[in-house]
Every structure is written in structure tokens, then in C-alpha cells.
Design brief:
The structure is a homodimer. By secondary structure, chain A is of the alpha+beta class. Helix content of chain A is about 45%, strand content about 25%. Chain A is built from 6 helices and 6 strands; from the N terminus they run ααβααββββαβα. In chain A, the strands form 2 sheets. Chain A has a 3-stranded antiparallel sheet with strand order 1-3-2. A 3-stranded mixed sheet of chain A has the order 5-4-6. In chain A, a hairpin with a 5-residue loop joins strand 2 and strand 3. The interface between A and B is large, with 38 and 38 residues. Strand 6 of chain A pairs antiparallel with strand 6 of chain B. Chain B binds a DNA duplex through helix 2 and helix 4.
Chain lengths: ~140, ~140
DNA sequence: ATCTGTGCAAATAGTTTGCATCCTC
DNA sequence: GAGGATGCAAACTATTTGCACAGAT
């Protein structure tokens, strides 16, 4: 079952009705491997109102079908949650390019922190900032 | 030498002149152990214009005297950079409380990722989201 | 005297909300 | 037919910019 089918099912269970705007946002996210911003989604879906993009993303986030990636002060991107797929991001400080990576050792270390903390840790984000290969060439 | 003295010196070297607004922002940050938002700084310094708060934070960030902590979609906080002191944050999803932590194993793991990557990694952020002890009690 | 730093107000960018209308159930 | 879903426009929040003036060198 694809992510978009799951999403549709979960939304249905949660009592949401089917609508064109949400379906389009979901289809777009289905085709993305990594994070996209709300405004990018909006501009790629001219038939969908901006407010609907934000509303849909909020709903999907609450149902844990999507999660936020905070990239800089301003830019916030969203990507779908695929069970079993868990990655973090490197962002190029020059061109803004976002590159996913995963690292088991890092996950273990984070899990270890959660164990020892008073917090009940629910989720985590890791962001590496640096210069991507392409921008390194440019000097 | 205190952080604020270092900051003053570094700003001077960089060709900045001394001004009242920047001095007050720096003094406020000197007294903070963890991150504060631009708006909080603004409201605690009524004599300083909001624009000056943002300008000062931008300058301090460029001189690596301060760095951003991205906490949620909206909230961005700043804290001073103390050489030798490097910590990350847990944020409570209920009350927004920010709690610093440090973990050598986590740092090693992150360093390891940087080694293997094509990116030239300059800095990193880790954020754990969860429920703080106080909010756990409230149910 | 010069030229930077500052405060104010206006502009901007991203996001949220109000509301009339459309569409699903 | 009732009530949620949607688009539009207005409201809001955080941040940035333009500009005249005060203040540092």
C-alpha cells in the first residue's frame, strides 16, 4: 500500500471527507522523496488555495503522516512519513540544497540521550549545515 | 575574559563602532545561559528598537558570537557561543520549555557522519521534542 | 566633519483566520 | 439537506528595509 493510500485511509478514519485540494497536496507529496516547502506546494498546485495547502499539511502532521523539517530561520519544509524510513538532512548554506542522509550510529546515540533524560522524548531532528560538493567547486 | 568583552573586542576588530543598542543586547545575552527569541529581547529592552535587535543578532551571528536554535515552525531563539561549551536542546511540545543537554557520544556520531559525507560540514543542530517532567505530571 | 548606529515606520514574507460557496456523504 | 472542504481576501506575526537624525571617531 502506497503512502498516499495510507494517508487517504487514515484521514477517512479520522472523520475527514474527501476533497480535491487535499488529494492534490497528497499526490504531490507522494512524488517527493525529500522535503518541500508549503509555498512550493502552493505554486506547483495553482488550482489549490494557499490556505488549503497549510490546512492539509497541518492535518497530515497531526495524523503523523508528514513531519516538519526546520532548515533555517525562515524556511520550513515538509516531507511525508514513511514507516521504516527515517533520515535527517544536510543543508547547503550557500545554495539551500537539502540532502537526506541516515546513520544508525547517530540514531543509537540519540536514543541513548532519551534514555537518560527526564524528558519523554517523542521525536528528534538533526540538521547538518555545510557546503555541498557543487558549491565547493564554485569556490 | 567574559563573553561580552570578547564580543565587544571582536566587533571592534571587525570595524563596528560602539553604540548603545548593541551594547544592551550583548549585556542581555551575557546574562542568559540558554536561548532567547528576538522578540523577547526586544520586549526586555524598551529603549532599543526592534530593528536594532535583529541587526545586532545578525552581526553577532556572522561573527560567530551567537547562533540560532530552530525550535519549531515559528520560534527561533538565539544564544551566545561560548567556546568550549556546546550543547543541544530538548523542547517541550506542551509548554515550549527549552532545556539544554550535552552528550559526547552524540557528538562523536555526528562527527562520524561529517567524515563520510560529501558535504563540508560546518555546524549542526540536534533537537529532541518531547514532554518535560512538569507537563508529564499534569497528565 | 564624516560616516556609522539607531529608532521609527513602512514594507515584506510566511502563515492563519473569516466567511461565502461548493461538494461530499 | 447538513456539515465539512475549499478559495479568496483580509488579518496577523516575525522579520527586513528606508530614511532622517543622533552619536562615535
Amino acid at each position: 500500500m502506497s503512502w498516499s493510500e495510507q494517508a487517504a485511509g487514515r484521514l477517512n478514519e479520522a472523520g475527514f471527507r474527501a476533497g480535491a485540494a487535499r488529494r492534490q497536496v497528497i499526490e504531490l507529496l507522494e512524488g517527493e522523496h525529500c522535503a518541500v516547502t508549503a509555498l512550493e506546494i502552493d505554486s506547483r498546485l495553482p488550482a489549490v488555495g494557499r490556505a488549503s495547502v497549510y490546512r492539509t499539511l497541518e492535518q497530515l502532521e497531526q495524523l503523523d503522516l508528514v513531519h516538519r523539517v526546520d532548515v533555517g530561520a525562515d524556511v520550513v519544509a515538509f516531507e511525508r512519513n514513511d514507516p521504516g524510513e527515517h533520515h535527517h538532512h544536510m543543508v547547503c548554506v550557500r545554495c539551500g540544497r537539502l540532502v537526506p542522509f541516515e546513520d544508525p550510529a547517530l540514531e543509537r546515540a540519540i536514543h541513548g540521550v532519551g534514555e537518560g533524560a527526564e524528558f519523554e522524548v517523542l521525536s528528534h531532528d538533526v540538521l547538518l549545515r555545510g557546503v555541498c560538493p557543487r558549491c565547493q567547486e564554485k569556490g
